[in-house]
Amino acid sequence: SGYVVSSRELWTILLGRSALRELSQIEAELNKYWQRLLEGLSYYKPPSSSSAERVKANKDVASPLKELGLRISKFLGLDEEQSVQLLQCYLQEDYRGTRDALKVCMRGRARP
């Protein structure tokens, strides 16, 4: 499915705080994702069985991430693919713990 830009990255670009310095680069990114910025929170969709199946079939996502993403989807009432994307963005941008702590967290939680 390719790289997914997080909402935070979009706002960072919009605020001029990203690594992008050339106006043409900034313009290209904002033009590419303007609809997403415009829609804001309405970008996020409710869960669906087809989205859950796509997550389960996705070979590019590790099983523990899929499982946690699906649990997040149930908890938030959010589309399964978007839940996995949010989890991946969180782990990439905001998670400050160790890999070992993450592993314990991911396998230590009981199913809801």
Task: Provide structural commentary.
The chain is an all-alpha fold and 112 residues long. It folds into 2 domains: 43 residues, no CATH class; 68 residues, no CATH class. The protein has 6 helices and no strands. It is globular, with a radius of gyration of 16 Å. The model has no long low-confidence stretch (mean pLDDT 86).
Q: What letter string, H or E per element, gives the SSE order?
A: HHHHHH
Rounded mean pLDDT score = 86
Number of domain units: 2
Question: Which class best fits the helix and strand makeup?
Answer: mainly alpha
Strand content: under 5%
Count the helices. How many?
6
Number of strand segments: 0
Poorly predicted tracts of residues? none
Radius of gyration: 16 Å
Largest sheet: none
Shape: globular
Spatial separation of the terminal alpha carbons: 29 Å
State the share of residues found in helices, binned by percent. Answer: 55-70%
InterPro entries: Nup188
GO molecular function, one term: structural constituent of nuclear pore
Protein name: Nucleoporin 188
Name some characteristics of this structure:
112 residues, 2 domains, globular, mainly alpha, single chain
Write the layout of secondary structure elements.
Blueprint: H1 7-14, H2 23-39, H3 49-57, H4 63-76, H5 80-93, H6 99-108
Organism: Cricetulus griseus (Chinese hamster)
GO molecular function: structural constituent of nuclear pore
InterPro entries: Nup188
